[in-house]
Amino acid sequence: MSLITQTDEQYYLGPDGVWNSWDENYGSYQFVTIKDVINNFIISYVGEDKIISKIKRTDVAFHAQRGIQEFSFDILPSMLSQEIEIGPSLSFVLPKDYVNYVKLTWVDSSGIERIIYPAIKTSNPLPILQDSNYEYLFDEQNEEIITAQDSETKTRFQSSTTQGNRATNINNGDIIEENHFGRRYGLTPSHAQANGVFYIDPIQNVIYFDSSMANRIVTLKYISDGLSVKDEDMTIHKFAEEALYKYIAHAILSTRANTPEYLVMRFKKELSAAKRNSKLRLSNIKIEEITQIMRNKSKQIKH
Fold first, then answer.
1. Dist. CA 266–CA 106, nearest whole Å
2. What are the CB-based long-range contacts (under 8 Å, 24+) for 185-194?
3. Nearest 10 degrees: CA dihedral of 241, 245, 250, 252?
4. What is the pLDDT of residue 176?
5. Can you tell me whether residue 90 is helix, strand or coil?
6. Long-range contacts of 262-266 (CB under 8 A, 24+ apart)
7. What is the C-alpha R_g of the chain?
8. How many CA within 13 A on the CB side of residue 141?
9. Is 165 exposed, middle or buried (0-12, 13-18, 19+ CB in 10 A)?
10. For labeling, which of 2, 50, 131, 132 is most exposed (least CB within 10 Å)?
11. What is the pLDDT of residues 77-128, one digit of tens each?
């Protein structure tokens, strides 16, 4: 466990003694470092007359990192964000610790985030070069198929100025005359928006946007596995500390030969209970906020 070792002045002013100079580490007491977790586990679980008689520190470190990775998906608040301005390429590279996206938004002049929806009907396929007879071209040295850098699908997607998912004003006389009444019945809500679209190329690890997103400020909110920092800087919330100990113990016991099955099942149950407690503690439910939201329950929803 981590203990308070700083005075109030050291905490609020930081090492340089200057207020708000960006060297402060506010809120650090909520977390315990991976180094402390490993030390605490070895002290509590490893040794003579203990659950684990002997183990290497590197093994404990491996299972501790795996535990943080798994907890990042289920328990820990692992959502990170990046704010990026979209340049002429209409794309940017995903973060190195990216696992999956939560949402993408662009920021308007009022600072409001507008959700950008994925274009699920397009992609960036591998473009194969062909000659005038539509036959494949091959490299003379390696005899491999020659491919282009950008696919025609991606090029057309980024150059188009009128995407099919744009919401238009149905009160406009020209549009009414062109599309006729009733033509828009059954409109898909996810496509009835004008905030732009994107798609992710999982091979190149790049996000591509349509032309309307040029020069806009985009915020990517994504899930991280929690392992993007150095080992000495890796931390876990104290509410999940006990669950991590149970995870390490169960992982070690379940991979060791001649371990009694009842002991493995015991720590499996303890791990499940500890994870459930951690989820409840980190859910941060406030009864006053729930009460405020539930005041809307008597309002009718019009269809």
1. 49
2. 190/117, 191/117, 191/164, 191/165, 192/165, 192/167, 193/115, 193/117, 193/165, 193/167, 194/166, 194/167
3. 130
4. 52
5. coil
6. 263/51
7. 27
8. 0
9. middle
10. 132
11. 777 889 999 998 898 999 888 888 888 999 988 888 998 888 888 888 888 9
pTM for the whole structure? 0.67
Residue 221 · residue 104 · CB < 8 Å: yes
Matching residue, tokens 């905490």: 11
Q: Which two tokens stand for residue 67?
A: 């535990």
Query: Would you state the pLDDT for residue 169?
Result: 44
Count other C-beta atoms under 10 Å from residue 236's C-beta. Answer: 25
Question: What are the two backbone dihedrals, phi and then psi, of residue 220, each rounded to the nearest 5 degrees?
Answer: -105, 120
191 touches 165 (CB < 8 A): yes
Whether 25 shows a pLDDT value over 80: the answer reads no
Check if the beta carbon of residue 101 is closer than 8 Å to that of residue 278: no
pLDDT digits (tens, 9 = 90+) for 152-206: 888 888 886 544 444 444 455 555 555 555 555 556 666 667 788 898 988 888 9
The tokens of 63 are what? 């299972």
DSSP bridge pairs for 91: 208
Q: Are 197 and 188 in contact (CB under 8 A)?
A: no
DSSP H helix total and E strand total for the chain: 8, 9
- The two three-digit tokens of residue 160, written as one number: 């188009």
Contact 114, 103 (CB under 8 A): no
The secondary structure element, H or E, covering residue 10 is helix 8-13
